[in-house]
């Protein structure tokens, strides 16, 4: 936790990796192929398949109201928690900013 009360949930290294991944995502999803030299140097993955793997990432769980995609009031688990400042009443997740009400007891 920093002296201002801001809790950095995402480490500096994780933030740099995320930034790099987002830049690559923008490049590749825009229709540009991977750089041929980078592709040639990349590890080879064989006998692969897509899979869902549960992961341990920090999230917030609670009751949400006024969510743009979830009408009404409901219990949710947020996307990955990036920053938390409980004292200032906000949290930033991978998908959005949240105002924080009272914490669970």
Automatic annotation (TrEMBL):
InterPro entries in the cross-refs:
DUF6634
Which Pfam families does the record associate with it? DUF6634
Q: Give the source species.
A: Methylobacterium gnaphalii
Q: Report which superkingdom the organism of origin falls in.
A: Bacteria
Official protein name in the record: Uncharacterized protein
């Amino acid at each position: 936790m920093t002296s201002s009360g801001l809790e950095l949930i995402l480490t500096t290294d994780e933030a740099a990796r995320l930034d790099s991944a987002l830049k690559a995502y923008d490049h590749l999803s825009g229709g540009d192929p991977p750089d041929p030299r980078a592709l040639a140097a990349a590890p080879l993955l064989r006998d692969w398949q897509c899979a869902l793997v549960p992961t341990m990432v920090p999230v917030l769980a609670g009751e949400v109201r006024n969510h743009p995609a979830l009408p009404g009031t409901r219990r949710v688990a947020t996307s990955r928690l990036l920053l938390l400042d409980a004292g200032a009443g906000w949290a930033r997740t991978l998908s959005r900013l949240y105002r924080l009400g009272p914490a669970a007891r």
